[in-house]
Q: What sequence folds into this?
């Protein structure tokens, strides 16, 4: 089991708003946002509720993607299904960068909502190798508006497949997005409001990165701590974090005392070390994504022989998210959209939250949960978000990035949101 820490954003003082949870009323125990974020490391398909059965489902991907050299037979889209025994509302879940349907936050939420009577389908993050291969038309995800379009089409295929092949009868369709999945879900809501091919009833978007460029810049800065620490210390920190998480593999996640013990262990890391672990974890699946993009579009980014998967994956480990965006994503996005002069900043800006705020504000189906100490956005972005969305935004004073997802009050709020009639 590997540790899971998600990206986060620093936000403005609480006194700026009135309709939020006051700090004195919110008993979440961790006021250090990095430590709060670290508590998500043990989340998975257990403990939030009674264990529920899930199954891996592989549905046909895009034409031609199942026969690529070195990737033969891997072109199906892999989702995780948590079915009910009869008709029920359905929730599609998409988590953050590099996530997959079988580990981490997605299965944690699935176990919670499945026990509450929902069909659950967890789709891979668009920024994962499986989505890039099976569902991304460009073969290089990362441009959010196009990723959302690909996600919308993948959802349609998955819902139809699950109905026809697995007898899933959904009384309504809902969506949960976490971190980057929440930003993609915001764009998804704009598409469905126009096209109505799915008719999504409710969206819960949890800790979306409000300004993606700011978040990527922070990740690059934190990844640079590797140079300061050196190779030996960097590997030691990663190994220590993994050992901590593995020591909680049998823990029951409905017990707050478990998170207290976990937080005490992570409290031994400095802020710089936690920042490094955040960046490292978010990019842990980036080499696989790079390998797959280069199998589809050889851009001479990797110099190792094409038939040497091990060497190419090892070489890909030396590339950052910014390297991916600039060397792989940008040329392919330019080609896909026929915009040869567009730069990386314009693509990232066009995929930001601010571009669709008015569309979100006019859509009462969309609701956001965020934390005021989430540490990858500046003050102005959250002010704009709050001003535009008002009561559509539930803002908590503490929790870092998704670090309070396991907390009783947050779980109850999410369950209540989906149980309330649209």
A:
């Amino acid at each position: 089991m590997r540790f899971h820490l998600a990206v986060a954003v620093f936000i403005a003082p609480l006194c700026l708003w009135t309709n939020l949870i006051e700090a004195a009323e919110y008993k979440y125990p961790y006021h250090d946002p990095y430590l709060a974020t670290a508590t998500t490391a043990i989340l998975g398909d257990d403990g939030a509720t009674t264990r529920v059965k899930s199954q891996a489902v592989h549905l046909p991907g895009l034409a031609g993607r199942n026969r690529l050299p070195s990737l033969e037979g891997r072109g199906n889209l892999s989702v995780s299904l948590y079915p009910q025994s009869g008709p029920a509302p359905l929730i599609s879940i998409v988590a953050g960068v590099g996530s997959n349907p079988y580990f981490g936050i997605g299965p944690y939420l699935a176990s919670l909502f499945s026990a509450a009577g929902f069909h659950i389908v967890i789709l891979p993050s668009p920024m994962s190798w499986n989505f890039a291969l099976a569902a991304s038309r460009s073969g290089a995800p990362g441009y959010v508006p196009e990723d959302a379009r690909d996600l919308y089409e993948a959802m349609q295929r998955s819902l139809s497949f699950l109905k026809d092949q697995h007898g899933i009868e959904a009384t309504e369709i809902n969506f949960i997005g976490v971190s980057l999945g929440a930003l993609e879900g915001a764009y998804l809501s704009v598409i469905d409001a126009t096209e109505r091919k799915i008719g999504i009833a409710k969206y819960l978007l949890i800790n979306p990165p409000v300004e993606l460029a700011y978040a990527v810049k922070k990740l690059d800065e934190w990844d640079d701590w590797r140079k300061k620490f050196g190779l030996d210390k960097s590997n030691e920190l990663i190994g220590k974090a993994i050992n901590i998480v593995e020591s909680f593999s049998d823990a029951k996640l409905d017990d707050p005392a478990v998170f207290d013990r976990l937080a005490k262990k992570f409290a031994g890391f400095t802020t710089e070390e936690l920042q490094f672990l955040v960046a490292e974890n978010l990019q842990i699946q980036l080499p696989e994504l790079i390998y797959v993009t280069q199998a589809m579009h050889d851009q001479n980014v990797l110099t190792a022989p094409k038939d040497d998967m091990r060497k190419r994956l090892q070489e890909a480990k030396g590339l950052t998210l910014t390297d991916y965006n600039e060397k792989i994503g940008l040329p392919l996005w330019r080609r896909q959209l026929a915009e040869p002069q567009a730069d990386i900043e314009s693509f990232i800006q066009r995929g930001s939250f601010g571009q669709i705020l008015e569309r979100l504000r006019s859509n009462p189906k969309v609701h956001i949960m965020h934390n005021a100490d989430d540490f990858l956005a500046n003050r102005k972005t959250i002010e704009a978000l709050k001003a535009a969305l008002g009561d559509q935004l539930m803002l908590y004073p503490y929790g870092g990035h998704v670090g309070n997802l396991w907390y009783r009050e947050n779980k109850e709020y999410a369950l209540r949101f989906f149980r309330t009639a649209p």
About this structure: Residues 144-166 form the longest helix (23 residues). The longest strand covers residues 170-178. Confidence is low (pLDDT under 50) at residues 1-19.
